[in-house]
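[step 3/7] inverse_fold.run input=structure_tokens len=408
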């Protein structure tokens, strides 16, 4: 029970494990997937300095370092429940119940589904599944695909599919309804993409995006946006067309697509078919926080962080004694931010076990998270800093409420 336990072998969990093990403490990492690395495994992109960020290699580096330090890693083992009894956390798996005084939850993120007619056909998958098939399993999801949902995740994975010599016919919007209200609205989607213009290989796209500084210009931009899309990595990104149906007889054969107004409404008589043998649905990511909820953490819905996140401070401590969080469970960001959060959580745990001897290192680690965030090449939510400020406000309110209870 003196062993620190980490749920999640992604970049945050492994970085925390390494930090804790380097201080001489024993660590056990549990993950439900067959490989360590989490969503880092699927990442492959070129950084501004020309170097390639290869998620498989980065995952292996973290895993090798953790194993060399004596970290015990158990894969293929889902955690079904956690609870705190008499100051110890009990972690339930199918085979065993583990006990610890210090538990870190680094369970990452899950993909948001977009309900579209025909989405149960064989050949329809989440865009993350296509990424894992291509980059991790080295299996092509098909020869020609359509990606439904225009966002940071779909744009990045479309580029990766292209690198694997897979034809991506287009990235386009879903038909707008009550569920896809934001992801199907051309103006909302364009706003969310403007902060990604630095990634565009086209100088025209980069310059054009910089000019759209106010709402009027943005409306003009979407009004005159080409119906057949603007190409990035030779893939048309269509903001004025939406998929109304995925069709096929027993398997995906293509999608029905129609032109939409600037408000996202289907324009009658414009429907056409695009042939494809696989379709990816990309609704974005949300924090995978069920275990923190089961534990009893208070939650807040913060749109800028991707959904509901457990209340925690900048040292990655929750309101529950001995329970910490790090990575995408605290808000959707890139792997490098997750790694810096993992290091911070690890130091916070060591600081707790060692009686406050890590304060200086912990403060440096907290500052390093912010520096990493500022340098991030890809930002899933452009207003993530606003989200973090909201979270800090909720944390301050929590501290005041605790103080008032003590005085009363």
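[step 3/7] decode complete -> sequence:
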């Amino acid at each position: 029970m003196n062993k620190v336990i980490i749920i999640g072998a992604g970049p945050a969990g492994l970085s925390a494990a390494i930090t804790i093990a380097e201080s001489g403490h024993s660590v056990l990492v549990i993950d439900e997937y067959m490989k360590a690395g989490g969503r880092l495994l699927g990442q492959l992109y070129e950084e501004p300095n020309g170097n390639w960020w290869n998620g498989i290699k980065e995952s292996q580096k973290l895993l090798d370092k953790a194993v060399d330090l004596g970290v015990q890693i158990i894969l293929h083992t889902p955690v079904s429940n956690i609870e705190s009894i008499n100051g110890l956390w009990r972690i339930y798996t199918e085979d065993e119940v583990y006990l610890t005084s210090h538990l870190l939850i680094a369970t990452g993120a899950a993909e948001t589904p977009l309900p579209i007619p025909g989405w149960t056909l064989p050949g329809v998958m989440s865009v993350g599944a296509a990424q894992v098939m291509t980059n991790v399993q080295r299996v092509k999801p098909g020869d020609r695909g359509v990606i439904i949902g225009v966002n940071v995740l779909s744009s990045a994975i479309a580029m990766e599919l292209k690198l694997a010599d897979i034809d991506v016919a287009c990235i386009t919007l879903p038909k707008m309804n009550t569920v896809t209200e934001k992801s199907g609205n051309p103006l909302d989607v364009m706003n969310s993409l403007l902060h990604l213009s630095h990634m565009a290989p086209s100088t025209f796209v980069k310059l054009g995006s910089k000019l759209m500084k106010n709402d009027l210009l943005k409306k003009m931009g979407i009004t005159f946006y080409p119906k057949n899309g603007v190409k990035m990595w030779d893939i048309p990104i269509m903001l004025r067309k939406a998929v109304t149906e995925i069709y096929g007889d027993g398997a995906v054969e293509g999608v029905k697509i129609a032109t939409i107004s600037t408000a996202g409404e289907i324009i009658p008589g414009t429907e056409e078919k695009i042939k494809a043998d696989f379709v990816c649905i990309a609704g974005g990511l949300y924090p995978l926080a069920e275990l923190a909820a089961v534990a009893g953490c208070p939650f807040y819905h913060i749109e800028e962080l991707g959904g509901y996140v457990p209340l925690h401070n900048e040292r990655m401590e929750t309101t529950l004694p001995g329970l910490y969080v790090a990575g995408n469970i605290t808000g959707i960001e890139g792997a490098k931010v997750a790694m810096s959060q993992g290091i911070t959580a690890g130091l916070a745990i060591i600081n707790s076990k060692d009686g406050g001897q890590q304060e200086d290192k912990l403060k440096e680690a907290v500052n390093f998270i912010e520096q990493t965030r500022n340098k991030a090449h890809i930002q899933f939510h452009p207003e993530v800093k606003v989200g973090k400020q909201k979270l800090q406000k909720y944390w301050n309110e929590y501290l005041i409420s605790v103080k008032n209870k003590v005085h009363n």
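[step 4/7] annotate
The CA atoms of residues 91 and 98 lie 5 Å apart.
The mean pLDDT is 90.
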